[in-house]
Amino acid sequence: MIAVLGAGAFGTSLAVAIGRERPVTLWGRNLKHRSQSAVSLPENVTVSAEIGDVGADTVLLAMPAQALRGFLQDNAPRLAGRKLVACCKGVDLRLGLGPVGVIRSVLPGTTGAILTGPSFAADIARGLPTALTLACADDAEGLRLQHDLSTAVLRLYRTTDVVGAELGGALKNVIAIAAGIVIGAGLGDSARAALMTRGFAEMVRFAESRGARGETLTGLSGFGDLVLTCTSPQSRNFRHGLALGSGQPVDESATVEGVATARAVTDLAERVGIAMPVTAMVAALTEGHVTLAEAVRTLMSRPLKQE
């Protein structure tokens, strides 16, 4: 049995995709918005607002990255001993850890994994072909999860590089905000391409410094997700940057994971002396420490160097 905890757009889409082929329990703290959704649930999906009803061995945690630690702490006795798969992308502001790191810190000994990669909830819910990365340090457990969660249209690729998969998904959100700022400010597609390229270099540099394998970042959880979120207004992070760049009000109700991640990663990078100019500028812009004109001027006036 599989459970999805979190009945937001992404959690619901995963429940729909998996529920087309096998039983799934979908839990949400407040299911009012779920009843208003246009997505119809397969018969295999059971909806519950009582977390005590969730008896599945495999649990997908579909909630914002900054909410994950508190949720795990509140429900530790219920979740201990289960296979926990994080379905969020970010770096915890307090701990400086990715989602699997947070799982391990709260529930030591529990099998933790992350499901990440280029995906929009609407595409998954509609049954459109999607490929994702499933990262689990224990390859045998990862293999079981890969088979349990894959469907005819949801194809999962397996890796043991958890840190690489975590940071690819987290950091691409930061670069997506920057890409949105570039387009919103009218700087053009050429500038966006340059920004994505240099941003990807930052992603690889930081991830490798944290023990990740560089090739993981060239896969679905890094480069693949970067391309998707830097080029589509379906991305909340891209839309957030678009609003900032064009001087429009940002959607305060939307969860924009890249904002917190930029702040967390900038702090971590500064401690170990890793240059992250794009990430640092996104953090400064989103926190209101610099203007857009100052940010562009700072990035363009950096010393010339070899690529």
TrEMBL record:
- Where is this protein localized, as stated in its record? Cytoplasm
Active site annotation, chain numbering: 172 (proton acceptor)
Q: Which Gene Ontology molecular function entries are recorded, alphabetically?
A: glycerol-3-phosphate dehydrogenase (NAD+) activity; glycerol-3-phosphate dehydrogenase (NADP+) activity; NAD binding
**One Pfam family this sequence matches:** NAD_Gly3P_dh_C
Q: What is its EC number?
A: 1.1.1.94
Keywords, in A-Z order: Cytoplasm, Lipid biosynthesis, Lipid metabolism, NAD, NADP, Nucleotide-binding, Oxidoreductase, Phospholipid biosynthesis, Phospholipid metabolism
Q: Which domain of life is it from?
A: Bacteria
Q: Which family does it belong to?
A: Belongs to the NAD-dependent glycerol-3-phosphate dehydrogenase family.
Which pathway, metabolic or otherwise, does it act in?
Answer: Membrane lipid metabolism; glycerophospholipid metabolism
User: Which reaction is this enzyme known to catalyze?
Assistant: sn-glycerol 3-phosphate + NADP(+) = dihydroxyacetone phosphate + NADPH + H(+); sn-glycerol 3-phosphate + NAD(+) = dihydroxyacetone phosphate + NADH + H(+)
Where does the chain bind NAD(+)?
6-11, 121, 236
Q: Which HAMAP family match?
A: NAD_Glyc3P_dehydrog (MF_00394)
Primary subcellular site in the record, as a coarse category: cytoplasm
Per UniProt, substrate binds at: 89, 236-237
EC class, as a word, reads oxidoreductase
Protein's recorded name? Glycerol-3-phosphate dehydrogenase [NAD(P)+]
- What biological processes does GO assign it? carbohydrate metabolic process; glycerol-3-phosphate biosynthetic process; glycerol-3-phosphate catabolic process; glycerophospholipid metabolic process; phospholipid biosynthetic process
Please give the start and end residues of each transmembrane region: none
What is the role of this chain?
A: Catalyzes the reduction of the glycolytic intermediate dihydroxyacetone phosphate (DHAP) to sn-glycerol 3-phosphate (G3P), the key precursor for phospholipid synthesis.
Residues that bind sn-glycerol 3-phosphate, according to the entry?
89, 117, 119, 172, 225, 235-237
User: Per the UniProt entry, what species is this protein from, by scientific name?
Assistant: Aliigemmobacter aestuarii
In what residue span(s) does the Glycerol-3-phosphate dehydrogenase NAD-dependent N-terminal domain sit? 2-139
The UniProt annotation places NADPH binding at 10, 29, 89, 121, 236, 257
Q: Taking every annotated instance into account, which residue ranges of this chain make up the domain Glycerol-3-phosphate dehydrogenase NAD-dependent C-terminal?
A: 161-296
